[in-house]
Amino acid sequence: METLRVKVWRGTERGALQSFAVPRQASQTVLDVITYIQRHLDATLAYRFSCRVGMCGSCAMTVNGVARWTCRTHVDAIAEDGAFEVAPLAHLPVIRDLVTDMAPFFDKWARARGQFQGAKSRHDDFARIAPDNPVRRQADAGIECIGCGVCYASCDLVAWNPDYLGPAALNRAWTLASDARDVAQRERLRAVGSDAGCHACHTQMSCTERCPKKLSPTAGIAGLKRALARAVLQGEL
Ligand code: SF4
Ligand code: SF4
Ligand code: FES
User: Which of 41, 51, 140, 165 could be cross-linked to 55 through a Cys-Cys bond (beta carbons 3.0 to 4.6 Å apart)?
Assistant: First the structure.
């Protein structure tokens, strides 16, 4: 049987790569390999996953230097001469081995006012938004984000400016800026208009190239820039 040579990050930020030999199998994913190591070679290996089918985003790691969902990454697609490397997601604190602390990532969603704020109570009628409304379509284009952090780990700006809100939080802010029911629009635009907000984006597109959901945070960030300019010109900010 063919054997894979796999290097896996161990420890915290000051850790090192450790080598393992894993039997190669047909249709094997990177997550299958990590699971094999944890179950058969070293039970102390820490990693995170849940759904195994590309629904939850919790299995995101760095594979051969690229952020990916490991459950949807086939070994055949990334192994070079039967070898590859797996490390934790970049730009986030490492708790241990392949597990990162996602708190700074989600704190930025809160800073970007990434929570819906409505004005109606349960006694009011439902808001009626036509599905083909162009503004609603803007929201729909970014709404399927599952918060995996792949775009965040792929964005160089986050590395250069740790305060930068990053593509996922800004994409979330854009979906809410395009939601006619939300009543915190001015506050949200102020939150994303700071030096660490949408104007810090250099439009390098790595987030959009890497998002496994095929979303375009770059387009959302451009939309926020337009909305901010409009609000300033109209004297609203
Ligand atoms: S387009 Fe902006 S948010 Fe996306 S990776 Fe580039 S700098 Fe980061
Ligand atoms: S925008 Fe895409 S890559 Fe970024 S967190 Fe959402 S699903 Fe993941
Ligand atoms: S384990 Fe849920 S997306 Fe990979």
Answer: 51
Residue 148 Cα: closest atom of ligand 3: 3
Ligand 1 centroid from CA 200, angstroms: 9
Can you tell me the distance from the alpha carbon of 112 to that of 124, in angstroms, rounded to the nearest whole number?
Answer: 28
* Ligand 2, CB cutoff 6 Å, lining residues: 57, 145-151, 167-168, 171, 211, 213, 215, 217
Please give the pLDDT value at position 25. 97
Query: What is the pLDDT confidence band of residue 47, given thresholds at 50, 70 and 90?
Result: very high
Using the CB atoms, write b or e for 34-63: b if 16+ within 10 Å: bbbbbeeeeeebebbbeebeeebbbbbbbb
Helix, strand, coil percent content, the chain, rounded in steps of 5: 40, 15, 45
pLDDT at 68 over 90: yes
- The residues, any chain, with a CB within 8 Å of residue 152's CB and separated by 6 or more, are 89, 91, 92, 105, 158, 166, 167, 168, 207
For residue range 164-191, what is the model confidence (pLDDT) as tens digits? 999 999 999 999 999 999 999 999 999 9
The H-assigned helical ranges of 65-216 are 75-78, 103-111, 134-142, 150-154, 156-160, 167-177, 185-192, 206-210
